[in-house]
């Protein structure tokens, strides 16, 4: 399978990455090189094979449902590019 | 006094215990070496004051006889490990000036055991790369040079000539250890990022079994493949490092609750009677004759030490790399969704929030990272999920089954080459076709796909005078066998220190 320019554009949008029009053909070529490389997986007979979910056979451990952390709002926003009174600031979402 | 930076980690440990020198002297020597080697670009952040404070505390503990297993030993930390109060960037512009308010579990365990931090080490951006050329801080210089090469320290102190890459993604870790800029370093390995740079620099590296080390506080790339491990000067040094790095952590649900053995005790243990598998599928068509000869040499050494050599088959080997280039980007696209310009790091303005996200991610991520996020997004998108992602995870089951069957048949470990070639020059690979770079991990990536431990140990030099490594693959949670076998190879091959400090 290979991707066309429209698909590259759509995928860039899904990935929330702005791609200038001029860069689309280069990206298309690179993505198609990778997709061409992975094509060989179609040779493998995978009928009846379970997809891997965990390399180590182990049950997910559960922990006690208790508060282990908190009251650190100032630390949480410390690295934010924009914050105000321990809130993250973002561009207006609702008109 | 002898040059303290030439010591191995365990020699330095013994010297501190014998009071031949102090932790402060040892740290001061390393700080000076780091400053002198800035042209190698191995460190992206030096923390000399932090190191000296830790060293003074270690000297006090050593005097009181309360030394931890790594007391007073100066280490470098890959910039993928969150270090409390010390800038952590994954060598990406998108993390900008991120200062973690927490410490990664693995690095925290090193400080618990008395280690000293010299600084943060360069790596490929988000650990995506095999040459350290994708770092936002620029490429790292391999301290090894081809025979007769024009690489040298120029009059301005910058490296001149076409230098070699140290491999990646843990290029800074490998280069720093090889150039004696720390006694050992932390690293991470998702497809070969510990073992390939170790092989390129004549150092030793181990990727432990998935679940052996906590991933908490390590910048995530592909969560089902990522594992932390050490790069060191010797097999023994790696054994000592891993003991401190490993262990159960309730904060990482994939971390395994098993006792951590004293790995150093496995170093020097007899390998007599062990069954070593040689997978025929690793004899690639067109395999470099020098790599082939090195592999045979490794077989002969292990045989001479009493191991039994058995040819085995791992039929799905060839599909590991293509399956990896679906699974790893898929997980990366999901993990890297968190870099949105809201909670930390870079923000670029936009007309609305969607444009703010798109502009931030366009400006913050480098070319290779964007490429992988796009591939990951594509293979997970509606209509393609089954054809790509689910199929790749099924192939992964088959890859693991190959190993399970070999181990069930009595194989103790598998011996393969670590890389298909020695270190290559900067800009030599992957500029037109990304797959050319990906092929570097052809021998290492199966190990991540199957969650197994893998050790890279230097075993010889090629015609250009550059180090080459062998890889040992073990049973799950049997790192000890790898340390025993690795020591046999190290004893036979000798060590490969960089002879001339030309930088």
TrEMBL record, chain A:
Belongs to the GatC family. This is Aspartyl/glutamyl-tRNA(Asn/Gln) amidotransferase subunit C. Heterotrimer of A, B and C subunits. GO terms for molecular function: asparaginyl-tRNA synthase (glutamine-hydrolyzing) activity; ATP binding; glutaminyl-tRNA synthase (glutamine-hydrolyzing) activity; transferase activity. It catalyses: L-glutamyl-tRNA(Gln) + L-glutamine + ATP + H2O = L-glutaminyl-tRNA(Gln) + L-glutamate + ADP + phosphate + H(+); L-aspartyl-tRNA(Asn) + L-glutamine + ATP + H2O = L-asparaginyl-tRNA(Asn) + L-glutamate + ADP + phosphate + 2 H(+). Allows the formation of correctly charged Asn-tRNA(Asn) or Gln-tRNA(Gln) through the transamidation of misacylated Asp-tRNA(Asn) or Glu-tRNA(Gln) in organisms which lack either or both of asparaginyl-tRNA or glutaminyl-tRNA synthetases. The reaction takes place in the presence of glutamine and ATP through an activated phospho-Asp-tRNA(Asn) or phospho-Glu-tRNA(Gln). One of its GO terms (biological process) is translation. Pfam families: GatC. InterPro entries: Asp/Glu-ADT_sf_sub_c, GatC. Its EC number is 6.3.5.-. Keywords: ATP-binding, Ligase, Nucleotide-binding, Protein biosynthesis, Transferase. Gene3D superfamilies: Glu-tRNAGln amidotransferase C subunit, N-terminal domain. It is an enzyme of class 6 (ligase). PANTHER family: GLUTAMYL-TRNA(GLN) AMIDOTRANSFERASE SUBUNIT C, MITOCHONDRIAL.
From TrEMBL, chain B:
Residues 25-482 form the Amidase domain. It comes from the Bacteria. One of its GO terms (molecular function) is ATP binding. Its EC number is 6.3.5.7. PANTHER family: GLUTAMYL-TRNA(GLN) AMIDOTRANSFERASE SUBUNIT A, TRANSAMIDASE. Heterotrimer of A, B and C subunits. This is Glutamyl-tRNA(Gln) amidotransferase subunit A. It comes from Bosea vaviloviae.
